[in-house]
Structures are given as structure tokens and as C-alpha cells.
């Protein structure tokens, strides 16, 4: 405008958007645009969000005790009084499904956190140190991969579940043991993935520039290498949630998960197996919840893999 005073370079620099912030915003926008193109992943995200809201708000909407016994409602099908029917003790299945979904989801997320933390640490150390340390850690990873997971899981739970339950209680003891066992046997794939990312990224130009400027190894890892390896770890962690839900359901179905008074989806399915001919709704709702959650989470993982892959053009 004529007669106006131009802004000084200092003011322009002060109010100009940060290049790093603009780059982060553009990367996030591009990832969201790619994720939206994956229709199944977008629908699955809505399904998982709806499921989580139902599990969180369910007790407020349906405040029925999970252990309220009513023998007059023995093995009834879905009705207005019991939308998902009842079990052999007349307990409301909707209330037990909501409580069990919380436990199954919590086990999946907690086991994923354990697997990601251990896997990222082992993979980062192996990819950074290389040499004998790398060989030793990869040998340990191969050792865990060679073990038959389900028999070892069953053996560990059978040996330690009673002592841990006596130490911290039934529900907490079962939760801690299942999360530790599942997470402790699912970190190997993440460790291999992180190691491969570190071996590739440490040779990139921006890491070499940081190394030439005198950045320490820890700073190179924390500020330059690890943030660029987060994408594949997020995808792997999402898939680990689904796998942990399946493993918890498998252990509970085999009778080595949570005790009978602590309903998880796998435990509900285990209790329903003897009544498939007279009360199929009991098993169908529990199995359907497991199937829906695992399938939706896997589709979300597929969408995140496409969205966070810089080599893929959508």
C-alpha cells in the first residue's frame, strides 16, 4: 500500500512460520491424506473408535453388575432386558462383554507397549553398536524366535500364575503375567525392524552431517535416527495390539488366562464352549467382538503402512 512503512527483516523473520514446524505440518497432512485414501483403514478407524467409546461409556449407559446372578434368566437369548442375552448363571452378557472388552484391549495395548519398548531398545543398541554387540543381540533375537511361542507361554503361565496371584491379587496378577509374557515374546520382529532402520539411516547424509559437526552418538540416535524410524515402529505396534488380543483370547480359551470371575472376551468364549448347541449367542457375541477388533486393527495397520511409507505415491 502506498505510504505504508515496510516491515523490517527482523519482524518478518519473527512472524514467519518456522521451516521445521511447516515441514512437520506438511508431513502430517500428507500422511493423513494417504490414510484417508485407504477406505478400509478409515472405516476400521471409525469401528475401533466406536468400540473404544462403547467400552469407556458402556458402564454409564448400562450399569448392570457383571456378577449379578439370576437363575430365572438362565441362558436366555437377546431381549430388551438383556440385549446380548445371558449366560448359564443368568449374568448379563452385555455388561460382561463391556468389562471383558476393557480387559482385552488393555492387555493388547500394554503388551504392545512392552514389546515396542524392548524391541526399540534392543534394535537401537544393535544398529548403533554393531560388531560383537550386534551379533550377540541378534543371536538372542534368533533364540527367542526359535522358541515355540504358545507352548512356552502356557508353561510360564502354568508355573508362575499362582505365586503371582498370591503376591498382588488375582486380577492384577493375571494381568501383569499375561502382559509380561505376551510382550516378552513379541519384541523380536520390532527389534529386527528397528535395527534395519538404524543401519540404513546412519549412512544418510543428514546423520553424517551431524556426526561431522561433532554430535555425540546419543544425540545422533535421539535427534536424527530414531525420529525417522518411528513410522515403521508405529505400524508394527498397531499390528502387535491385534496379535496380543488374539494371544490373550487363546490363553483364556485354554483356561490359563484370567480367572472365571474376571471376564475377558477370551474367558467368555471359553465359558460358552459347552453351550454352543443351546445358547449359540453366548459364543457368537464374544467371538464376533474379537474378530471385529482384530480385523479393524489390522486394517488400520495396513493404512498406516501406506500412509507412512515415503516411497509410496498415492
Explain the overall architecture.
The protein has 314 residues and is mainly α. The chain has one domain: MetI-like fold (Orthogonal Bundle), CATH 1.10.3720. It is built from 13 helices and no strands. Helix 3 (39-61) packs across helix 13. The longest helix is centred in the middle third of the chain and has 37 residues, at 93-129. The radius of gyration is 25 Å and the shape is globular.
Ordered list of secondary-structure elements with their pairings:
Layout: H1 9-15, H2 19-37, H3 39-61, H4 93-129, H5 131-146, H6 149-168, H7 170-184, H8 188-201, H9 205-212, H10 217-228, H11 230-253, H12 265-272, H13 280-307
Helix pairs in contact: 2-13, 3-4, 3-13, 4-5, 4-7, 4-8, 4-11, 4-12, 5-8, 6-7, 8-11, 9-10, 11-12, 11-13, 12-13
Give the biggest sheet: none
Rg, nearest Å: 25 Å
Count the DSSP helices.
Answer: 13
SSE class: mainly alpha
Distance N terminus to C terminus? Answer: 42 Å
- Dominant shape: globular
If you average the pLDDT, what whole number results? 83
Give me the count of strands: 0
Please give the domain count. Answer: 1
Our estimate of the beta-strand percent is under 5%
Ranges where pLDDT stays below 50 over 5 or more residues in a row are 6-16
Helix amount = over 70%
The fourth-level CATH homologous superfamily is: MetI-like
Task: Give helix and strand order, one letter per element, not per position.
Answer: HHHHHHHHHHHHH
CATH architecture descriptor text:
Orthogonal Bundle
Short synopsis of the structure:
This protein has helices at residues 9-15, 19-37, 39-61, 93-129, 131-146, 149-168, 170-184, 188-201, 205-212, 217-228, 230-253, 265-272, 280-307. The chain is an all-alpha fold.
Amino acid at each position: 500500500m502506498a505510504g505504508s512503512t515496510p516491515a523490517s527483516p527482523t519482524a518478518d523473520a519473527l512472524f514467519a512460520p518456522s521451516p521445521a514446524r511447516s515441514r512437520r505440518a506438511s508431513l502430517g497432512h500428507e500422511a493423513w491424506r494417504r490414510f484417508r485414501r485407504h477406505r478400509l483403514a478409515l472405516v476400521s478407524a471409525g469401528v475401533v473408535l466406536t468400540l473404544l467409546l462403547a467400552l469407556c461409556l458402556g458402564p454409564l449407559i448400562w450399569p448392570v453388575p457383571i456378577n449379578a446372578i439370576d437363575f430365572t434368566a438362565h441362558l436366555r437369548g437377546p431381549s430388551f432386558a438383556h440385549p446380548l442375552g445371558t449366560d448359564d448363571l443368568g449374568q448379563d452378557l452385555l455388561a460382561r462383554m463391556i468389562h471383558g472388552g476393557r480387559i482385552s484391549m488393555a492387555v493388547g495395548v500394554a503388551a504392545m507397549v512392552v514389546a515396542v519398548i524392548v524391541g526399540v531398545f534392543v534394535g537401537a543398541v544393535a544398529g548403533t553398536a554393531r560388531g560383537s554387540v550386534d551379533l550377540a543381540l541378534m543371536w538372542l533375537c534368533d533364540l527367542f524366535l526359535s522358541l515355540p511361542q504358545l507352548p512356552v507361554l502356557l508353561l510360564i503361565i502354568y508355573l508362575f500364575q499362582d505365586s503371582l496371584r498370591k503376591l498382588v491379587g488375582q486380577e492384577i496378577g493375571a494381568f501383569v503375567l499375561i502382559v509380561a509374557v505376551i510382550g516378552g515374546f513379541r519384541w523380536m520382529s520390532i527389534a529386527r525392524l528397528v535395527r534395519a532402520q538404524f543401519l540404513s539411516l546412519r549412512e544418510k547424509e543428514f546423520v553424517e552431517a551431524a556426526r561431522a559437526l561433532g554430535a555425540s552418538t546419543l544425540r545422533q540416535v535421539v535427534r536424527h535416527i530414531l525420529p525417522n524410524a518411528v513410522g515403521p515402529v508405529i505400524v508394527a505396534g498397531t499390528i502387535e495390539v491385534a496379535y496380543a488380543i488374539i494371544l490373550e483370547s487363546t490363553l483364556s480359551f485354554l483356561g490359563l488366562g484370567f480367572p472365571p470371575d474376571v471376564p475377558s472376551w477370551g474367558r467368555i468364549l471359553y465359558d460358552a464352549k459347552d453351550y454352543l448347541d443351546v445358547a449359540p449367542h453366548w459364543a457368537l457375541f464374544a467371538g464376533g467382538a474379537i474378530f471385529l477388533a482384530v480385523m479393524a486393527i489390522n486394517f488400520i495397520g495396513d493404512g498406516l503402512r501406506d500412509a507412512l511409507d515415503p516411497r509410496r505415491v498415492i
